[in-house]
Amino acid sequence: MENEAQEYLKKHKITEFLSHATESMVYTRPPRVNSYLIKMLKEMKEVRDSDENGQMPEHPNIKNMNAIALFRMLDPMGHGKVPASSLKEILDVYSLFDNENSQLYQLYVKDEDIYQDDFVARLNHDLKTNSCYWAVAATEE
Hints:
- By secondary structure, the chain is mainly α.
- Helices cover 58% and strands 3% of the residues.
- The protein has a two-stranded antiparallel sheet.
- The two termini are 20 Å apart.
């Protein structure tokens, strides 16, 4: 029974969703928590069900500016590029290491320098497609 429950939580990324929701609420501190969560769920559903191909909800906790800040921490001297080896920790933190679907992981494997715009775009893509916000999509039960 416990294994079935764990599989269910993993399949639907429920634990991940609750973690994202909690982080987002701590960061934004909405005055009306229930309304905030309802809005978050509605936005997820609207984007998931939209006819526009490729549209994905923004990751709840990593916005473009955050991704740029992460890149700048990897590139403190401002060279505009970083070696692929510097991505290891970020890949680990976001559970993207050894994820064959991760665009950042693919760059890490190629061991090429990564430029800021490419890093931001690929991180955003990976977080959107691998997060709880895009977990069920077309295979929803």
